[in-house]
Write a structure and sequence with these properties.
heterodimer; A: 195 residues; mainly alpha; Arc Repressor Mutant, subunit A; 9 helices; 73% helix; B: 252 residues; 11 helices
Chain lengths: 195, 252
């Protein structure tokens, strides 16, 4: 009980601090912009990197997210946490960019080349690695975003729903779809997950 | 499975796009706990991020903010400071003028033209005076000009060492910038597809104008080239204005 009230008090202080910081940022206080940037940049960069897999693109999209957020901060009503609002902008900016690149085709490196797998992957078959990358890239854009945000980046369905502007139910259903599609695409490697 | 849960819903939570969930968005296969556990272990190895280059990104953010605020404050030579209130009024006047011209043309066309079949007359009239169509026409014309300007900029090796050519480019840039800002403050600027393009164009134009008072040095050109490349401006303009659209729009 004591812990709960201490936690909620702490949370209240955090919210008040964030409110004050955003107010200062609205008035154009550069140090408030910097503080907001420092607080959120890591998560935004991780998210854009997860969704693109390209370092320079993740960097540009992160920058774009913050420039847009600071430019539109007057429109931030505070209905959600600032971090959630930033996620919404980041996802929108990133998926639009990926959509545009896909449309424009070969001028930029296709996403297939961008998806990378670290050396610590818990399997050794290079064919599986290749098939997995292809299967993830073949997922519909929204479905792929939900999968990467949840299973790769560890966001909750609540966070994903807020960022994509969908319901939590949609987020859960899309994750199930993504996993189902991947399972079908990787069926020949079933011994990897069967005991 | 409830269909309501399967389709993305529009919620007023700030900027969002319509994401593609695939044609079979409402088909959810049964889950396999063993596969789910395996994929949860594997997924974090996909696109595992490196450390965020914080300082580099912060510098770029500050540079972008500085350019935007200097243009806004009128500290960029030759760029008129933007007064959103006045601009809004001007855009309303411009829109009224455009509408007036369009209505006038439609009326004149109806008077001059031989009697048309009854069924087709209301359709033609409604189409020609549709305000959103007029804004699209204006946007197409401005983007066509912007494309020509940016193409000229990229091709203008002569401007590197020629202050006169650089000044001409700057003066052309100011003209296109005025039109771009007018559009940004018009209903065309509310178009979610057009607004980011116009905003990016505004920033690049300001950079071109900012550097047009003197011969462009290699570093200056690199800055603009990078902005053009990073924002993919020319391909985006070309895809927003398919060949012939601006011409045919103005001929209507």
């Amino acid at each position: 009980m004591e812990t709960e009230s201490t936690l909620s008090l702490e949370r209240a202080h955090q919210l008040a601090d964030q409110h004050a910081l955003i107010e200062r940022a609205r008035r154009g206080d550069a140090s408030a912009h910097r503080a907001l940037y420092d607080t959120h940049v890591e998560r935004i960069y991780r998210l854009t990197f997860r969704l693109t897999g390209v370092e320079h693109l993740a960097r540009e999209l992160t920058q774009d997210t913050f420039v847009r957020a600071f430019g539109a901060i007057d429109g931030f009503r505070g209905d959600s946490a600032f971090g959630t609002w930033l996620h919404t902008i980041a996802v929108s900016v990133t998926l639009n960019e990926l959509k545009r690149r896909k449309r424009e085709g070969a001028r930029n490196a296709p996403l297939e080349d961008a998806l990378t797998v670290t050396q610590s992957a818990p399997y050794s078959d290079p064919l599986l690695r290749e098939k997995l990358m292809k299967a993830v890239n073949d997922l519909p854009e929204g479905c792929r975003a939900v999968f990467m945000m949840h299973d790769s980046e560890g966001l909750t369905h609540q966070e994903i729903a807020a960022a994509l502007g969908v319901t939590e139910g949609t987020s859960k259903a899309q994750l199930a779809r993504a996993r189902g599609k991947l399972r079908i695409a990787l069926a020949e490697f079933a011994e990897e997950w069967k005991p | 499975m409830n269909d309501e849960n399967m389709k993305p819903k529009a919620e007023s939570r700030g900027p969002r796009a319509d994401y593609d969930f695939g044609e079979d968005a409402d088909v959810v296969p049964p889950s396999d706990p063993q596969f789910d556990a395996w994929i949860e272990k594997v997924a974090p190895t996909l696109n595992a991020p490196n450390a965020a280059p914080r300082a580099k990104m912060w510098d770029a953010i500050q540079a972008a903010q500085k350019t935007a605020s200097e243009a806004q404050a009128g500290r960029v030579p030759g760029v008129t400071p933007l007064r959103r209130g006045h601009w809004r009024l001007m855009s309303v006047i411009a829109a009224a003028l455009l509408l007036g011209v369009a209505i006038d043309r439609v009326v004149l066309r109806q008077v001059d033209a031989p009697p048309a079949p009854v069924a087709s007359a209301p359709l033609a009239s409604a189409d020609s005076s549709d305000p959103s169509r007029l804004y699209r026409m204006a946007a197409a014309q401005t983007l066509t000009q912007a494309e020509a300007l940016l193409t000229a900029y990229r091709a203008s090796k002569v401007a590197d060492n020629n202050p006169v050519a650089a000044r001409q480019l700057g003066s052309w840039g100011r003209e296109v910038l005025s039109r771009t800002r007018l559009l940004l403050d018009s209903p065309a600027g509310d178009d979610p597809r057009l607004r980011p393009l116009l905003s990016d164009l505004e920033l690049v134009l300001v950079q071109i104008i900012q550097l047009s008072g003197a011969p462009l040095e290699a570093g200056d050109r690199e800055l603009i080239d990078r902005a053009l490349q990073d924002r993919d401006l020319l391909p985006r303009i070309r895809s927003a204005v398919p060949a012939g659209v601006a011409g045919s729009a103005s001929d209507d």
